[in-house]
Each structure stands twice: as C-alpha cells, then as structure tokens.
Amino acid sequence: MRIFITGATGFIGSTIVAELLQAGHQVLGMTRSDVGARSLIAAGAEVFRGDLQDLDSLRRGAAAADGVIHTAFNHDFSQFVANCEADRLAIEALGSALEGSDRPLIITSGTGMGAAAPGQPAVEDNFDANHPNPRKASELAGAVVANRGVNVSVVRLPQVHDTVKQGLISPLIELARAKGVAAYVGDGGNRWPAVHVSDAARLYRLAVERAQPGSRYHAVAEEGITMRRIVEVIGQGLKIPTVSVSPEETVAHFGWLAGFVGRDLPASSTQTQEVLGWRPTGPELLADLERMNYFSV
Fold first, then answer.
1. Radius of gyration of the chain (CA)
2. Which end of the chain, N or C, is less packed with Cβ atoms under 10 Å?
3. Going edge to edge, which strands form the sheet with 151-157?
4. CB 97 within 8 A of CB 142
5. Best CA proximity match to 50, nearest among 64, 145, 151
6. Cβ neighbours of residue 7 under 8 Å, at least 6 residues apart?
7. Burial of 80 per CB tally in 10 Å (0-12, 13-18, 19+)
C-alpha cells in the first residue's frame, strides 16, 4: 500500500514510517520543513509538503494514497480545546478525499474516550459523545466522515513513551525540574495507561492493513501505573523530593497540567489484542523513566 502519514516526522509518526517501510509499504510522509524532508528521505519515504492548517494539502495527500494514517496534532496542551477543533477540521478534510472508496483512514484519539465508569478501565467499544474531554472532537469527526462513506478506524493512545519522551509525563518532568519537587495529587493513587512507541507504531500498521470500518483500537500495554510511582521515579531521576499536593492546590502548582494530573484513567486493550493479534513487547514506562538521562540538554 501507498500510505499517506500526517505527523510523519513526529515522535510517533516517524516510528510508524519505519514500521511501514519495514513491512514493505510505500510511505508518503507529510512535512512542512526542509529538516523534516531530509529525515523522510533518509528513512526511505517519499516527501509530501503540507501543513495541518492547510486543509487543501491534506486533501491532496489523501487523494494520492491507498490509505491514510493521521497522527499530526498540536501538542501545546495549554491550547487543547483549539487544537482539538483543528483536528476535527483536519479529519473532515482527509475524509473528503476518501469518500466512496474502501481506502482506510486511521485517526488518533485518547484512551480516555473509552471510559465508561469511574475506576473501571476504558474499553474500545465505549464512546461517550457528551464526554467533557475536548478530544472527543476527533472521534465525532470520524463519525461524520464515516457517514459519508469513508472507511474510518480509530487508534486511541495512552502515554506513549521511550527514554526521551513520555506523553504528558514529559511536561510533568519539566515542571518538577522547574519547581524543585516532583509532585502528585492527594495519595497519588490515580492511574495512567502507557505503551512503548514501537508497540504503538505496530498497532497503527495493523489497523491500516486490516482496514475494518468503525473499529476502535487501544494501544495499551500497561492498563494503569499509579501517578505516585511515576512521580517517585521522576524524583529519583532528578534527585529532588517527592511531595503530595492537595486537590485545592492543584491548579496553583501544576498550571495547565492540573486538568490531567489527578485523573484516574486506566484503560484496557483486551479487545484490540484479540482482534488484531497485537501483543506489546516494548519496555514498560517505569523502565524507560529509570533509564532516561534527566540532565541531558
């Protein structure tokens, strides 16, 4: 297959590019920079000049491919609502180029969208259209283009990690560095799911190859690691104290991260593993946090 990838030079996208090429696919990778173009060429991919804000470029890229994997997202979480709205527009643009065909469109969401009840792991077959998380815009957009005849599937991501990046944990590390303490909320018993970036990339490949309309997949290797344990490893790595912050102090201490850091977000990938035969094999989150260089530039 010739697969168009948005976010092709990003943390997850670049790993997907390598995964697809190794499996024998052709890759049309979107980038807006010369640096990105050089990295795609070095990897063995074809360069497509485009931008997430340029909806015409998204349509052209999708039209030139046998399938699309959409991973591009503005990860400035201080502008989360606006970024989710931009993702909705991007998905609708990509879908407009695929209407009436069987060519798959794989979009990206978060595992929190599958939460059904407090304390229970999120599951693939659950989606609450009234969920307070703005990221629901991505899946709502997927439903819109599906109704127009587009073959849409969703990959939901937890904290995706290696020894350099760890999703929302990376800004949590920088906050701890700046504050001089590594903090969690209350008793730190809330949980975050996680997956190694190599396992996430393999799931995207399986999803685009399977091309099952309406499918939702959870890229979850670990259902939930407590925030206290995560923060303890961060504190050890930075050689700073670990402290508890009360719920009342959360906003003052964490800033924009306050909306995420105290939430209990366990998630399951049982259905995904059964349907796709996907088995995560990469390092666990705490192992990567223990191995990372906290003092590199």
1. 19
2. C
3. 46-49, 26-31, 2-6, 67-70, 104-110, 151-157, 216-218
4. no
5. 64
6. 13, 30, 70, 71, 72, 73
7. middle
Distance from C-alpha of 162 to C-alpha of 127, rounded to nearest angstrom = 28
For the range 52-56, what are the long-range contacts, defined as Cβ-Cβ under 8 Å and sequence gap of 24 or more? 52/6, 52/86, 52/90, 53/86, 55/89, 55/90, 55/93, 56/93
Residue 117 CB-density burial (10 A; 0-12 exposed, 13-18 middle, 19+ buried):
exposed
**Per-residue pLDDT tens over the stretch 192-224:** 999 999 999 999 999 999 989 999 999 999 999
- The C-alpha angle 56, 113, 203, rounded to 5 degrees, equals 70
Task: Count CA atoms closer than 13 A to 153's CA, side-chain side.
Answer: 25
Q: Give which of 182, 195, 159, 163 is closest to 279, Cα–Cα.
A: 195
Percent of the chain with pLDDT over 70: 100
pLDDT tens digits, 128-146: 888 888 999 999 999 999 9
Residues 6+ apart with CB under 8 A from 297: none
**In one letter, which amino acid is 45?**
A
Alpha-carbon distance 47 to 34, whole Å? Answer: 10
- What residue has token string 């990838």? 5
